[in-house]
Amino acid sequence: MAQQNLVSFFLIAAILLGCQAHASDLCDKAEYVELCKSVVKGATDPKAAIKTSIEFLLSETRRLKASSEKLKSSQFIDVCTDNYDSAIDDLNNSLQNLRSNDIASLQITLSGSLSFYETCNDALAEGGKGVVQVASRLVKQDHKLQHIAANALHFASLLK
Question: Which of 46, 72, 91, 97 fits a disulfide with 106 by CB distance 3.0 to 4.6 angstroms?
Answer without folding.
Answer: 97
